[in-house]
Amino acid sequence: MGFFFTQTFIVSPAFLCLILFISPSLASETNPTITPTKPSAYEVLKDYNFPIGILPKGVQGYDLEPSSGKFSAELNGSCSFSLEGSYQLKYKSTIKGHISEGKLSSLEGVSVKLFLFWVDIVEVQRKGDSLGFSVGIAGADFPIDNFEESPQCGCGLNCNDVQPKEVRTNPIFSSY
Question: Residue span of the signal peptide, if any (predicted)?
Answer without folding.
Answer: 1-27
